[in-house]
Design a protein that fits this description.
Three copies of one chain form a homotrimer. By secondary structure, chain A is mostly beta strands. The first copy, chain A, has helices at about 200-205, 215-225; strands at about 10, 15, 20, 25, 30-35, 40, 45, 50, 55, 60-65, 70, 75, 80, 85, 115, 120, 125, 130-135, 140, 145, 155, 160-165, 170-175, 180-185, 190-195, 195-200. The first copy, chain A, has a domain at about 60-205: 3 Solenoid (UDP N-Acetylglucosamine Acyltransferase, domain 1). Chains B and C meet through strand 3 and strand 15 of B and helix 2 of C.
């Protein structure tokens, strides 16, 4: 299996590395699946996804569109991943809160996890099942999440606690106690506090549509000022 | 290697996925070994084990019966795993407490780790070698264990500290300081403090034999009330 | 792919397991690459390296000589690994401090990480990009590193903080506040405080050359007294 060329097979409209094992029949166009990854049957994978090496996507899982799954990630049955989510390298998901090898559980007893659109799970973070990760939430590298995370929240540590907010533009917004309106110091987007974390003010809402031309302009902002772990 | 059907080979009495690499000659019946896993020669694997994808079982390792090894786990020489142990996804074991690439150590200098029967190691937990994980102990997801853990203890955090006890039925028993006798609030099993953590009172002892018919009744209890990370 | 013999192919002067995927043309002699590992093209791997199973070495990466990469490690573009570094099992490196799946970044915007010669990254540790890990530094198992680490520093926890120093001989040297000269209690090497952590005094400098006969004598010291997690 040593070879000097990467072999990529194009089947239908997605691509799979020759050393990937792909059994799903519902994979969107332009999705790429890399070596030693296994996508099981009865999974639904959106378009434009990138599934890294040594990943495992279990039967029953749904990944939205444009999801990035970095190397070494297992997505278990019971986990739902919405559009534009970033699953960092070796982050760990779960579906059983109190496993014992001698207690065999049925598929119906799995505890679910929901990762909302545009969220980021940092490298080597752990998500204990039964929680919801909010829209645009940002789980720092190595964090251990044991409760649900609000929209736009930035959490770090073990157990994870909130230390700020994370803008659509991927830069940090400080937590200002008692302040109803917040502005990103990097891109000037405005937010207000809502029922589940922050809500972008209307102008920012429009800008948050992935695929819009505005996203290319994010690049110069974020590449010059790395601010938090991820 | 892209295929639309999972191929499982039955050899003797155990099963190995066609993309697993199995070199051991001592594998018990009904054990299953999944894709991209490598079970080296000179390992001893019990019956009814489940060895997940991308696992590695190193030469010299012994796994007991009914051990669950979730995806992405490396079991190194020097680690002993007793019956009914659950090794959560991507949990990390070790056998060298102070590695340096320029100091080559002999196999004889490895530092051992013992994982006692019925224990659970949570997802992405780290076990520093030289410790013993007690019977029925429960290592929370993402915990970093640097000292031995008593029987039935529930530990979490980095470094891991005890926050409670974990019953045979996989539900949490609060730590009550100065109390010699404890009762599980979920299944009413009784325990007393012993030399190494808790000891089940006689009635619970009988119930703790895996394979007994009682275990099927655990299911309804634990699936309705997920209580701790794992 | 189930087989009872490990097949190792010798090509030029290095070895690759038959189930490794090796695309690099710059691999030093005596380097070994194991099953289900992927070494991409346009990587530079030194001599005497050991690249474990399920590893991934990305395009553009340079590994020095005698680097140990334990199982399950991804070395991303932007990470530079100097000679004699130990990358513990499942340790996690990164190259993007604030990833979002909907923000596509160019290779030029990756944030770099430098792991200096003789350093050790412990099992399941996480290194947030943009930092430098000092010479002989020792990152404890499960640590989450979010800032640069001085030479010879021993750091643990999430986030990682310094709790001592780590000698060339892989034993711990206590942090003594206000003391300019420090001596390893195990091997008696002397150090002084320098601009970036400790600096070995001249005698220790000579002893620190890997490959010198002195290194074999380390073994008896360290195998009898495991002192810190790694």
């Amino acid at each position: 299996m040593t070879t000097t060329a990467t072999i990529v097979q194009s089947r239908n409209l997605y691509m799979a590395h020759a050393l990937a094992l792909v059994e799903s029949e519902e994979i969107g166009e332009n999705t790429r699946i890399w070596a030693f990854a296994h996508v099981m049957k009865d999974t639904r994978i959106g378009r434009d996804c990138n599934i890294g090496e040594h990943c495992y996507i279990e039967q029953g899982v749904t990944l939205g569109n444009n999801v990035t799954v970095k190397n070494g990630v297992n997505v278990w049955a019971g986990v739902t991943v919405e559009d534009n989510v970033f699953l960092g390298p070796n982050c760990v998901l779960t579906n059983d809160p109190n496993p014992r090898a001698y207690i065999k559980k049925s598929a119906g007893s799995l505890v679910e996890t929901l990762i909302r659109a545009n969220a980021t799970i940092g490298a080597n973070a752990t998500i204990v099942c039964g929680v919801s990760i909010g829209r645009y939430a940002f789980i720092g590298a190595g964090a251990v999440v044991i409760r649900s995370v609000p929209d736009f929240a930035l959490v770090v540590g073990n157990p994870a606690r909130q230390i700020g907010w994370m803008c659509i533009c991927a830069n940090r917004i400080p937590m200002l106690v008692g302040q109803e309106l917040l502005t990103c110091p990097h891109c000037q987007r405005g937010y207000r506090r809502g029922e589940n974390g922050l809500e972008p003010l209307p102008a920012a809402c429009d800008a948050s549509i992935p695929g819009s031309t505005e996203f290319s302009s994010f690049h110069s902002v974020i590449s010059t000022e790395p601010s938090v772990e991820g």
